[in-house]
Write a structure and sequence with these properties.
The chain has 347 residues and is of the alpha/beta class. It contains 11 helices and 8 strands. An 8-stranded mixed β-sheet has the order 1-2-4-3-5-6-7-8, with helices on both faces. It is globular, with a radius of gyration of 19 Å.
């Protein structure tokens, strides 16, 4: 049963969690729309470094870096995480960082990548994409598509076999790029095909393109407009830098002219206090109504990317949910206790 099928239920997700409210009072989030993107990028690099230092364990995985050509000759960097005991048929997982399309690096999701590789004996690839405002839409989705096509053709050189599982995922802007690439793989008949999509707090809607059936549930842009994280002003500034075409299929599969029924399973996560909350909620409903297998996890009262507030218990839960969801997409469901033990290993 769908617990978020009425406006009242959806709006209830946006009631702030008391503990995160107290955290915000003690340590207000920085303003992320007042500085130029170059300054904000430097701050993101610092935050990524702190995040990686907080979860330094390699779990026995091995890391390497290589570059591959994009369609215009640009050399884009891939970070590759190989499992401790890699076999030639390890599944392939692609994880895409977020940052409003203007910041972030392919080191951002290293903790997820290392844990995923160790848990599921998977080769995990962290691609890059060029950032706005220097590179506007659709450079980012094209870069990720070019990377995924290269991986599909060259997986064996990395010791991976996509026929054993080929999952793409991402967070925030990376969540957008994951769902867009998932749809593009269907549209352009990628071979081997993708077998799963992780959409973590994705942006994939605009008021102009919400399907009529779900418009009464598209409430987060207004409800959470004045939030401290990823608010309406943030979205206005960031999308101004990126310049998306909201009616393009490279922005959202909602604009598809082919049935969505052929898409692989999707694991979707949304934050209740997020302006992007209903992007994920509604996209998951659209997929489910189209016959696509889905799982949804919502975090009531929590802001965009709430797991960054490590002192809150829902931070750890979100990480475990993500790793568990990747296992579901790979057909390798592992007990949460085992995932938690590995995730909380210090060295």
């Amino acid at each position: 049963m769908d617990p978020y099928n009425t406006p009242e239920a959806v709006l209830q997700l946006g009631v702030i969690d008391p503990q995160i409210d107290q955290i915000f009072k003690e340590e207000p989030p920085p303003n992320l729309n007042s500085d130029p993107p170059q300054v904000l990028r430097a701050g993101m690099v610092t935050n990524e470094k702190l995040g990686n230092e907080a979860k330094p364990a390699s779990h026995g995985t091995n890391e390497s870096v290589l570059t591959i050509p994009m369609r215009d000759g640009y050399e884009s960097e891939l970070r590759v995480i190989k499992p401790p005991n890699q076999t030639p048929n390890s599944p392939l997982v692609v994880l895409i960082y977020g940052g409003g399309f203007f910041c972030g690096t392919n080191s951002q999701l290293l903790p997820w990548a290392k844990a995923t590789s160790a848990l599921y004996n998977a080769t995990v690839v962290l691609p890059s994409y060029r950032l706005a405002p220097e590179y506007k839409f659709p450079t980012a989705p094209n870069d990720i598509w070019d990377s995924v096509k290269w991986l599909a053709a060259n997986a064996a050189s990395l010791g991976a076999d996509p026929s054993q599982g080929f999952v793409i995922g991402g967070s925030s802007a990376g969540g957008n790029l994951a769902v867009v690439t998932g749809h593009r793989a269907l549209r352009e008949k990628l071979s081997p095909p993708l077998t799963g999509v992780l959409a973590n707090i994705p942006v994939c809607l605009d008021a102009q393109i919400v399907p009529e059936k779900y418009k009464h549930l598209f409430l987060a842009r207004e409800q959470n407009a004045d939030g401290l994280v990823c608010n309406a002003k943030d979205l206005e500034v960031w999308t101004g830098w990126w310049g998306p075409d909201y009616f393009s299929v490279d922005f959202s599969p909602v604009n598809s002219d082919i049935p969505l029924a052929g898409l692989p399973p999707h694991f979707v996560q949304v934050d209740g206090l997020d302006t992007l909350r209903d992007d994920g909620l509604i996209y998951e409903k659209l997929l489910r109504d189209s016959g696509v297998s889905t799982r949804l996890v919502a975090y009531p009262g929590m802001p965009h990317g709430h797991w960054g507030y490590r002192q809150h218990p829902l931070s750890d839960k979100a990480h475990i949910d993500t790793l568990s969801g990747l296992g579901w997409l790979l057909g390798q469901e592992i007990q949460r206790e085992e995932i938690s033990r590995l995730w909380n290993t210090e060295g």
